[in-house]
Amino acid sequence: MTAAVDWSARAGTLQVPQTILIGGWRGAAQSGKTYDVVSPRNGRIIATLPECGRGDVDRAVTEARRSFDSGVWTDMAPKERKKRMRRLAELIDAHRDELALMDSMCMGVPISIAMNYCVQWAVNGFEWYGEAIDKIYDEVAPTDKSVMATITREPVGVVAAVLPWNWPVGLLGWKVPPALAAGNSVVLKPDEQSSLSALRIAELALEAGIPEGVFNVVTGGPPVGEAIGRHLDIDVVGFTGSTEVGKLFLKYSAESNMKPVWTECGGKSPNIVFADAPDLDETARESAMAIFINTGQVCAAGSRLIVEESVRERVIDTLGQVGKSMTPADPLLADTLLGPIAKAAQLERVLSYIAIGRSEGARLRLGGERINQKSGGFFVEPTVFDAVDNTMRIAQEEIFGPVLSVISFRTTEEAIALANDTSYGLASAIWTRDLSKAHRVARAIRAGSVSVNCYGSDAHDVTVPFGGYKQSGFGRDKSLHALDKYLQLKTTWIKL
Question: DSSP letters along 315-326, please?
Fold first, then answer.
């Protein structure tokens, strides 16, 4: 699908949004300030966007509140809201090339992955939650006959969605559709690096018939996030990002109006390989993809390979062969599997952790260097450390780059202990032929998702929830459970 397209040529002619979108109004930040979006593929400026502040957030929230209180969306017949949500899904699909190109240019995700996965997540999200709108029922409680009690689900009001930079279109498709399906109005803050696709989808939402003020987008950095977190007229925040920033949003809520903050944060996910895995070579290949896909910039990446000692060398050898074949390259080439690190600051972070791994005594088995510097891009080789102790920083701290820590074990109990010996609990995987062992270990792992004989395939299916334990956050994206974050339960007690 992508092979016949000259994406570099398309990039040169792409028209990108240059303004924020509040209600039906497009314009600059109140301060007039702007910032440059720098592409990680070559270090060049690809867009200049408004650097919003507190006043812009106030304006967006005011518009969202106005649209919510007017009932223009909330009170619209469910079948009509469904039709418009599904129409937006169709428009996103129709503009797939454009949106994928924006994400690839902004944060370096390979164009084939942006096309086939990121954009598809958004299409699936708007279509699926749109279809769900007229299938959510209220309840009548089983009370005594002298009363009738109803339990109704009502939208919370104004929802702020705060997105990271690693899967721009895809995670928009996880956050915004359930909030809209529940009848709320939304203020979206994409990461400042990867705002172009979000601004374009907000324009498409107007075209699809989503009323003005129901879907608003503001751009900028941490000051915008803090203004959202502390805003007294925002009812709920849905956040995906680092654990450090997630904790800031909890603080902002505590110091303002105690708004619920649903967090999906970092991970240091265990990928457990038993000696009786169905196919060790295939396990190693998929384990390589589990950490190197999107250049390791995945919260659920399988960054700790916990492998049974008896097969450790075989697994590492195959994994190394795969890693060597995945040379980071221009993300706009159709056959690129690994692009650049998304930001210069993140590049420095990844390189610093590679240095830490060396200093801690881990054995570097693959990669470890910055490459393609003449391009001006932020490229790092796939990197594998062996002989890692689980107490090392590279085993405990989220790196968010293509860096794998290999940790060996001898018994099932040791594997479980290693898997759970982390402050995170987002994703995990188990590779074994033994069905009983798979169930036993899956029950013991403290993580929001457990894959068996695969890694992370559930992320592509909107029907199942995604989220974490411990400092990976709380609340779930995807599935019908995501609607619970954006609905209030009201009991009406009637004496008969």
Answer: HHHHHHHHHHH-
Amino acid at 462: V
Q: For residue 375, tell me if it sits in a domain.
A: yes
**Judging by DSSP bridges, how do beta strands 215-217 and 185-189 pair with one another?**
parallel
Assigned domain for 436 exists: yes
Buried b or exposed e, range 390-409, using 16+ CB within 10 angstroms: bebebbbbbbbbbbbbbbbb
Place of tokens 């895995």: 277
Phi, psi of 158 (to 5 degrees): -105, 120
Q: Which two tokens stand for residue 387?
A: 């002989």
Look up the CATH number of the domain holding residue 398: 3.40.309.10
* pLDDT 10s digits, 427-459: 999 999 999 999 999 999 999 999 999 999 999
What residues are labeled active site? 264, 299
- CB–CB of 191/168 below 8 Å? yes
Q: Could you tell me if residue 467 is inside a domain?
A: no
For residue 286, give every residue at least 6 positions away whose Cβ sits within 8 Å of its Cβ, in sequence order, or none. Answer: 454, 455
Helix (H) or strand (E) holding 428: none
Q: Residue 397 corresponds to which amino acid? A: E
CB-based contacts of 79: which residues, under 8 Å, 6+ apart?
133, 134
Q: Which of 141, 236, 137, 223 is nearest to 186 (CA)?
A: 236
Q: Are residues 118 and 91 in the same domain?
A: yes
pLDDT digits (tens, 9 = 90+) for 216-271: 999 999 999 999 999 999 999 999 999 999 999 999 999 999 999 999 999 999 99
Looking at the structure of the chain, the number of domains it has is 2
Largest CA distance in the chain: 79
Q: How much is the pTM?
A: 0.96
285 and 236 co-located in one domain: no
5 pLDDT band (50/70/90 cuts)? confident
Query: Are 253 and 274 members of one domain?
Result: no
